[in-house]
Amino acid sequence: MGRNGYFFVAGIISLVFAGAHTWWGVSHALPGIGTLGLVAYANAETSWHQVGGTFLIGGVALLHEALYPRPSVIVPALVGSIHAMTLLVFVVLVGTRYPAMFARTIPQMVLFSTMLALIAAGIAWRRRSVGDDAGG
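The chain above was modelled as a monomer; its predicted structure follows.
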């Protein structure tokens, strides 16, 4: 079983977005929310950094899975399910409750869809490389 290029690319993208999301939020998005009051700012900042943390942990996990392959696909499937949940929140919540904002979330939806596609391709590649009885 060789190294998994799909997980590697997804891991790098995830780490890049962990840094970019944190930097952009602190310097651009979050200061504007501060005018809404301390509670709104604290909620927004907490949520913002949870997403950055998810990118960081997911990226490290995917890089580990890419560089130190093993038969199980539990870790990449878990990272993928977190990205799927985030995509679902964007599509359903924004699409139904805030339709005027939907166009502004298209870049995020493209990112999470791309991550899901890479993770799914990596899982398929791993299963082919170790056989269908890989488990997980």
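The chain has a mean pLDDT of 87.
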